[in-house]
């Protein structure tokens, strides 16, 4: 049975879908997507954020620190499906974690362990709740070929990727035990803008757009030929919704999301500079190569592009937002948010800037 399909769930009861980490970029987009469906939707975050207006779903918002004892079990109680979007990322370096960062390990791995135990203890007899887990394609490490399809061996390089892989494996084991039905969606570079997100997106695309809006050069840690697969957050939200609809077929596996096309980062940055120029009327900012910082990892210089045909074959999902359209929309919304005027360059620092 589909978790979020057109019916009302088991008998006359609408299924309850709980989104953990609902105030982030993906969480906000997914909340908006799922709010259109005839379900009960519980959104959980550490911060308050604006909820969709006129939802079809029965919408419940909770504010909670999931690290507090009993908070996670309370948040997911009674859930037919849980979407786990919580992750610990540090400062402007985001996923570049110190090996001895116990808080990061507690969030990225410990919360998944707690989730499994909470569902084991509270699930209804015979029920196997669905758990959607937000993974990352970098869990694979240095693959032998840039185009990934999900069959590659996992050899993660950094602490963040190792924690995400360990969490994914915990969920797969719980699936084999019959406790739940886990689906891991491994994502490439996600970009876009959600105006109601409680924290600004600090991914590479948004960071470089903010630099260009401030008339600062866009910095690469290499010659610009490294490939990245970029996917708009609205397409990611639709993918998670599709995974809920096909949870039984997807259960127990990891599935790759992506546009299916690798883009040279140098060209992406050039397009960002041009899109910002079109918005502001100023000349495009330069794209320059700089020496990589100490926190750079070997995967920063490794190309990735995604073959998501396995996921598409099961769900029918396919990304709809073209890269150029997504970039232009993100430039527009960030420019409005920053209230950047048209006209001469104004300069100045941008918080959270980094290269790529």
UniProtKB/TrEMBL annotation:
**Matching Pfam families:** Epimerase
Q: Which InterPro entries match?
A: Epimerase_deHydtase (IPR001509), Lipid_A_modif_metabolic_enz (IPR050177), NAD(P)-bd_dom_sf (IPR036291)
Q: Where is the NAD-dependent epimerase/dehydratase domain?
A: 17-258
Q: Tell me the SUPFAM superfamilies matching this sequence.
A: NAD(P)-binding Rossmann-fold domains
Judging by the UniProt lineage, the source's domain of life is Bacteria
Protein name as catalogued: NAD-dependent epimerase/dehydratase family protein
Q: Which organism is it from?
A: Streptomyces pimonensis
């Amino acid at each position: 049975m589909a978790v979020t399909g057109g019916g009302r769930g088991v008998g006359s009861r609408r299924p309850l879908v709980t989104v953990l980490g609902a105030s982030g970029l993906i969480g906000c987009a997914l909340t908006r997507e799922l709010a259109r469906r005839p379900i009960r939707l519980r959104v959980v975050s550490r911060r308050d954020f604006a909820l969709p207006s006129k939802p079809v779903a029965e919408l419940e918002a909770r504010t909670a620190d999931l690290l507090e004892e009993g908070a996670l079990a309370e948040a997911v109680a009674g859930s037919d499906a849980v979407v786990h979007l919580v992750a610990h990322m540090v400062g402007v370096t985001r996923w570049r974690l110190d090996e001895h960062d116990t808080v990061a390990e507690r969030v990225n791995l410990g919360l998944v362990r707690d989730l499994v135990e909470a569902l084991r203890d509270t699930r209804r007899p015979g029920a196997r709740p669905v758990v959607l887990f937000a993974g990352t394609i970098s869990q694979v490490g240095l693959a032998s070929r840039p185009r990934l399809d999900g069959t590659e061996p996992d050899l993660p390089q950094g602490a963040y990727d190792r924690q995400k892989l360990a969490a994914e494996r915990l969920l797969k084991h719980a699936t084999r035990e019959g406790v739940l039905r886990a689906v891991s969606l491994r994502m490439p570079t996600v970009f876009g803008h959600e105006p109601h997100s409680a924290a600004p997106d600090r991914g590479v695309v948004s960071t470089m757009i903010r630099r260009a809006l401030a008339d600062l050069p866009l910095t690469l840690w290499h010659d610009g030929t490294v490939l990245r697969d970029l996917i708009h957050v609205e397409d990611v939200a639709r993918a998670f919704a599709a995974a809920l609809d096909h949870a039984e077929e997807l259960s127990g596996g990891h599935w790759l999301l992506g546009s299916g096309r690798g883009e040279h980062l140098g060209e992406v940055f050039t397009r960002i500079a041009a899109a910002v120029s079109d918005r502001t009327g100023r000349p495009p900012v330069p794209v320059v190569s700089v020496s990589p910082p100490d926190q750079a990892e070997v995967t920063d210089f490794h190309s990735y592009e995604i073959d998501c045909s396995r996921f598409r074959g099961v769900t029918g999902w396919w990304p709809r937002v073209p890269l150029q359209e997504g970039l232009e929309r993100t430039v527009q919304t960030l420019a409005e948010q920053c209230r950047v005027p048209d006209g001469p360059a104004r300069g100045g620092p941008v918080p959270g800037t980094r290269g790529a």
